[in-house]
């Protein structure tokens, strides 16, 4: 017989954990899901706004946004690893240094966004956080 899923942790409404996205109200406050949905849509291709299922079921939207952010992170990692070889005969050294810094920056940004999407997805499923001292 399958075991029941463990209860989701509960904390307090109105508390945003570290890494929570700017512009998204803390979970549990009035209108927070609307701000979360708008932020998640901004991470996805524009055409996704035409799908009612994503508006009606924000956890599905969070999953779609997570997939896009993970693809961006993978692209940044791949780009960083292959840029020197792919561009060696095409760009000057100073441009290569700049493109590698760009990949580092975008990879870090995508990793932070991936964490923020996870936090929003968890909050959409009812998780709340307790501040720690």
Instruction: Extract low-pLDDT stretches.
Output: none
Mean pLDDT: 91
Described by the principal axes of the CA atoms, the overall outline is elongated
Number of helical elements = 4
Radius of gyration: 19 Å
Residues in β-strands, percent? under 5%
CA distance, first residue to last residue: 41 Å
How much helical structure, as a percent, in the residues?
55-70%
Tell me which oligomeric state these chains represent: single chain
Taken in chain order, the helices and strands follow as: HHHH
> Biggest sheet: strands, sense, closure?
none
Number of strands: 0
Structural class: mainly alpha
Describe the structure.
This protein starts with 31 loop residues before the first helix and ends in a 9-residue tail after the last helix. With 133 residues, it is an all-alpha fold. The protein is built from four helices and no strands. It has a domain at 63-133. The longest helix has 32 residues, at 93-124. Helix 1 (32-43) packs parallel to helix 3 and helix 3 (58-87) runs antiparallel to helix 4. The relative contact order is 0.19.
Kindly summarize this structure in a few lines.
The chain is mainly alpha-helical. 59% of the residues lie in helices and 0% in strands. The chain has a domain at 63-133.
């Amino acid at each position: 017989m399958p075991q029941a899923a463990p209860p989701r942790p509960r904390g307090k409404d109105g508390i945003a954990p570290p890494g929570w996205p700017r512009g998204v109200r803390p979970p549990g406050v009035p209108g927070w899901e609307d701000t979360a949905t708008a932020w998640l849509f901004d991470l996805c291709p524009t055409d996704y706004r035409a799908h009612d299922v994503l508006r009606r079921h924000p956890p599905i939207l969070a999953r779609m946004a997570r997939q896009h952010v993970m693809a961006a992170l993978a692209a940044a990692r791949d780009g960083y690893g292959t840029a020197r070889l792919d561009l060696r005969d095409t760009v000057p050294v100073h441009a290569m240094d700049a493109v590698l810094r760009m990949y580092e920056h975008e990879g870090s940004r995508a990793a932070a966004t991936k964490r923020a999407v996870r936090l929003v997805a968890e909050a959409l499923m009812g998780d709340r956080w307790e501040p720690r001292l």
